[in-house]
Batch of 3 targets.
Target 1
Amino acid sequence: MAGFDYAKTRATAEQLIAKFGQQGQLRRITASGPDYDPVQTSEDFACMLVDLDNTQAHIGGTLIQRGGRMVYLSTAGLSIEPTLADRLVIAGVEHAIVDVQPLSPGGIAVFWQLQVRR
């Protein structure tokens, strides 16, 4: 029996996010130099994303707070994996990433689900 084609599912997710989403930037900040005087630099990675409101059912007693956003981040063209140390720029506004969950059945990242807040 042949296994499920997760690469095809990934391609479908990339197409849907591109069609219904928007462009953004995943911002990675790195520190270099001595510990007592580090120099921080940022590098932006273009990405496609879908920005969603959290419903009232998701808020309260959880990691999700009022004003937080749920974001589906496409893997298309993204050369890095998002981390909690990164920032996500949506419509020119920088958001902190407070949770990163890959949808990766079978070991293939189909897309990333992020919780972000200003």
Note: The domain at 6-117 is CATH 2.40.10.270 (Thrombin, subunit H).
Target 2
Amino acid sequence: MSGLAHQRLSQERKAWRKDHPFGYVAKPKTYADGSVDMLRWQCRIPGKNSTIWEGGLYPLELEFSKEYPAHPPVARFPAGFFHPNVYDNGKVCLSILNPEKAWQPSISVKQILIGVAELLLTPNNSDAAQDNAYRIFKKKDRSVYERMVRSQAQKYADENVQPL
């Protein structure tokens, strides 16, 4: 791993341990043999209370390249995750994760996870990634969209999510 990427990710890990939003999880992936992969972080984003996302603990993986922080990580939910700004393969479409839009090397893991959580609540109609979810969300009657999200919240409820 690049020295700069490793150094920055080590700093990110220390900063996360000291200060992170309640209920969120972010840590480098640990394999069965005990080795740690600093370029792959396993994260969990809790669904915000009093929203259709409430009750879910949504698994997200951050994949960092050796060029980090010059290049953003790829954020990925499990394949098939239902959201207008998440591709079918799970990749999150968010401006702060796009080097041609709003990525800045100063953006932290904490800011990324908060940004993804905000995207869950407020999809971006001008940057759809998943046609089916986009069409359902865009309809005036949101009951189908809300039902799909609530079903997903049950799927990813705390007791159904595999431990990290």
Note: The chain has a mean pLDDT of 93.
Target 3
Amino acid sequence: MLKQSVELDLMFQALADPTRRALVDRMTQGPASVSDLARPFAMTLAAILQHLRVLEESGLIHTEKEGRVRVCRIEPEALRTVEDWITERRTTWERRLDRLGALLEQDDRPERQN
């Protein structure tokens, strides 16, 4: 459990930055070279590489050298881990709100008098 918690911490820290979220969004369309990923941003290639390093260290992406080009890919299993964590919390809160709604509905019903 602690290992998963540390992994989630790294993933959420990585996703906290809007530039890194934009990079992840782009990579969900398919693998991309570092230069392709950097093109839309008004920052240095070194800054993009730092963002990619954070994403890779969090486990959200994988990079590998293909010839002279470094290609970046999403790690779907890592995204699933984040999604599962969020889904568990959402489900818990939906159940709680459903129970609260049922209780409030019960309280709103007029009591029958015989």
Note: The helical segments are 2-15, 18-27, 34-38, 45-58, 76-108.
